[in-house]
């Protein structure tokens, strides 16, 4: 009924041997670290649920939630595969790559939702929305493009506030003051 203590000024090593006295597993507790040498390392709850395991092929975290508390976040030097990326309630979620590209790929699509707030995408040079086989749908009560260039006015002195949205052959958009017919052809100099 008493606890068992192993005490050492250097380390305590526990070896598990086979019948030929070859070491199968080793646990070394020392002043600098605790080391486990084995084919597989596992941590389980009292009920037997797997919390953590590691072997030559993979590391598995079996807990319901993985929290990384470092102020600098988490660094994945290669790639990460997950069915869900979510921030804590009332906290912002940031996916960033300060010096390289950020790529998200999925064969059946990627969904980004902001149920209770705004979604913001910013970049230094070019933001591209591309659909190879489908379409891009902007579905909103208001769609604003505040910095589009405007073509020259076709009727002198007109003060109307109705514009036609025009598309250049290279895909660039511009506004042209609306007329009784399309005024896009008149203002194609904006496309240059």
UniProtKB/TrEMBL annotation:
It is a single-pass type II membrane protein. InterPro entries: Sarcoglycan, Sarcoglycan_gamma/delta/zeta. GO terms for cellular component: cytoskeleton; sarcoglycan complex; sarcolemma. Keywords: Cell membrane, Cytoplasm, Cytoskeleton, Disulfide bond, Glycoprotein, Membrane, Signal-anchor, Transmembrane, Transmembrane helix. It is found in: Cell membrane, Sarcolemma; Cytoplasm, Cytoskeleton. Its main location: membrane. The keyword Transmembrane helix applies. Pfam families: Sarcoglycan_1 (PF04790). GO terms for biological process: cardiac muscle tissue development; heart contraction. Belongs to the sarcoglycan beta/delta/gamma/zeta family. This is SGCD protein. It comes from Acrocephalus arundinaceus.
């Amino acid at each position: 009924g008493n606890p068992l203590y192993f005490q050492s000024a250097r380390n305590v090593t526990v070896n598990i041997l086979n019948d030929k006295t070859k070491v199968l597993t080793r646990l070394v507790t020392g002043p600098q670290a605790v080391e486990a040498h084995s084919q597989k390392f596992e941590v389980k709850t009292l009920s037997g649920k797997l919390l953590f395991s590691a072997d030559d092929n993979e590391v598995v975290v079996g807990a319901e939630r993985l929290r990384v508390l470092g102020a600098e976040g988490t660094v994945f030097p290669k790639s990460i595969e997950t069915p869900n990326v979510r921030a804590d309630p009332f906290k912002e979620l940031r996916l960033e790559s300060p010096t390289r590209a950020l790529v998200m790929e999925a064969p059946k699509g990627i969904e980004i939702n902001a149920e209770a707030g705004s979604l913001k995408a910013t970049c230094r040079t070019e933001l591209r929305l591309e659909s190879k086989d489908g379409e891009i749908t902007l579905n909103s009560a208001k769609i604003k493009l505040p910095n589009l260039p405007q073509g020259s006015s076709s009727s002198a002195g007109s003060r109307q506030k109705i514009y036609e949205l025009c598309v250049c052959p290279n895909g660039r958009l511009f506004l042209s003051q609306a007329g009784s017919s399309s005024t896009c052809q008149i203002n194609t100099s904006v496309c240059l």
